[in-house]
């Protein structure tokens, strides 16, 4: 039970990390596009 619980918590942590990284990448891409459009 302890191993399964720790495994589940680690999976949730990886999901949160992956989601935050995806959001961070999307924000940087949007800011880059805005900067490129303004510099034109």
UniProtKB/TrEMBL annotation:
Keyword Transmembrane helix assigned: yes
Alphabetically ordered keywords of this record: Membrane, Transmembrane, Transmembrane helix
Source organism, top-level taxon: Bacteria
Domain Major facilitator superfamily (MFS) profile residues, every copy: 1-40
Keyword Transmembrane carried by entry: yes
Membrane-spanning segments: 16-36
GO molecular function terms noted in the UniProt entry: transmembrane transporter activity
InterPro entries in the record: MFS_dom (IPR020846)
Name of the protein in question: Major facilitator superfamily (MFS) transporter
Organism: Legionella cincinnatiensis
């Amino acid at each position: 039970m302890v191993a399964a619980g720790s495994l589940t918590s680690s999976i949730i942590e990886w999901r949160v990390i992956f989601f935050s990284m995806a959001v961070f990448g999307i924000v940087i891409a949007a800011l880059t596009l805005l900067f490129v459009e303004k510099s034109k």
